[in-house]
Amino acid sequence: MKLLVAGGGVAALEAVIALRELAEERVSVELLSPKAEFAYRPLAVAEPFGSDPIMRYDLLSMADDLGASFRLGTLHEVDAKERVVRTTRGDELSWDSLLVAVGARMGIGIEGAVTVKGPGYTGRFRSVIREVQERRLRRLTFAVPPGASWPLPLYELALMTAGLVRARGLRKVELRFVTPEAEPLELFGTQASQAVRNMLDERGIELYTGHYPAAAEEDGLTLIPGEDGPVPADRVVSLPRLRGPAIAGLPSDAGGFIPVDLHGRVRELEAVFAAGDATDFPIKQGGIATQQADAAAQAIAAEAGAQLQPEPFRPVLRGLLLTGETPRFMRAEVSGGRGEEWEVSESALWWPPSKIAGRYLSPYMGLHHGELARPSGGVPVEVALNPKAPPGPQRRTVIAPAQDENGRLDAFDLPN
User: CA 412 to CA 416: how far, in whole Å?
Assistant: First the structure.
C-alpha cells in the first residue's frame, strides 16, 4: 500500500513511526511537509524567561531513518476519486491511502492583544516582559480567546510571569487572567482546577472565569458579558484562535475542521484519514493528536493486511503545566465521563515525562534526540550555484541564520 502522510507535526510523525512497527513492509510511506524541520512547540513558552531555544529536528533524517520518502510541499487539494493530491506548487502525488495531519490554522485570538503562537512568535511577548521589568508596563492581562484553542500554555505564561515579578520585587505590577472556562483548566477535572486556582491566587493573579474576551482597547480588555466594564490592562496577551485547514476536496464543518470517525476515517470518503488539530475533535493538544494518529495508523495497517484489530480513539488527556517552580502533571480520562481517574501530581504520571506523551513518538525522540537535532542558530538551506543543475556537485547545503517571526531568512554569505 502506498500511503501519503501530509503534515510534519506530532500527528504525522506519530503515524509514520506507528506504521513502521504495525505494518512493517506492507506500507510504503511518503511524508509531505511544508517545512524540513520538526519544532518541539510546547516548550516555546519558556523561551522569553531565559530558557534555551526549543529543539528543532531534521525531518529528512527522520524520514530516512523510518524508511519513508520525504517531499517538501504544502497540501492544497485532495481528489479522492482519482486518489491524488495537489500541492500549492502544482505537484500531483498519487496514493492508495491518505492521512491528513496538517494541523490547524492560527489566527488572531483577540483584536489588539499580543498573540503568542509558538516557536518563532515569542519576540513580542519577550518585549512585554522587558517592559514589565523596566516598570513601563504595570497592568498585564492574559486572556483565553473564544472558540477552538488549547489554553494550558497561557496559564504557563501567566504563572511564569508572576514568578518573575515576585523575583524582581515588582510590587506595583498587576496580573489578571480571563477565561471563558467555568473553572481554570476545567478539562482536567475538579482537582486540577482547584490546584491551578490556588497557584494563581498564591501568585497574586486575579482570575475572571466565565467571560469571553472581546477586544483589547485603550481602557482595558472588554468582555462578554460586560456589565462590569472592561478589565484593567495596559497590555493583553492571548493565544491564537484556531481554524480548520478547509482543504479543497475534503469535507469540513463550519470552522473548517475535518470530520472523522473514531478510527480517523474522514467521513464520506474512502481510504482518506485525518488526525490531530485539523480534525473536528474539540480538544487541540499534541498528546491527543498522537492518540488520533495511533487509531488511524492501526486502521491503515489492518487495511494493508497486518493481523491486528484496530482500536478506536479513546482520548486520555495528559498535560504538563510549567509553573516557573515545580511543574504539575495532570491526567484526565476524558472519554470515560467526568470524575473518572482524573489526577494531578508533582510527580510524573506517565513515562517518559515529556510535554507530548506519544506512544511511539516520545520513546523515538528520546532514543534519537541528539542525532536528529538541527544545529542551533540556523536551518539547512540547499543553494543551487547553477539553478538548472540537478542535485550534485553544483549544489551546496549551508547553514543559514534562523528564521524571523514571519518565517523569513535573513541575508547570509555563502561559505568559501
Answer: 12
Q: Which residues contact 196 (CB under 8 A, 6 or more apart)?
A: 155, 184, 185, 321, 328
| Contact between 260 and 274 (Cβ < 8 Å) | yes
- Answer yes or no: do 201 and 183 share one domain: yes
Question: Who's near 139: CB < 8 A, 6+ residues apart?
Answer: 173, 174, 176, 220, 232, 233, 234, 235
Quote the DSSP letter at residue 294.
H
pLDDT digit string, tens, across residues 259-294? 999 999 999 999 999 999 999 999 999 999 999 999
Per-residue pLDDT reduced to its tens digit, 42-76: 888 888 898 888 888 999 999 999 999 999 999 99
Q: Domain count of the chain? A: 2
Model confidence, pTM: 0.87
Rounded CA-CA distance 301/310 in Å is 8
Write out the residue range of the structural domain in which residue 235 sits. Answer: 107-241
Q: Residue holding cell 515525562? A: 353
Q: Which residues pair with 141 in a beta bridge?
A: 176, 236
Q: Sheet of 328-332: strands edge to edge?
A: 317-321, 328-332, 343-345
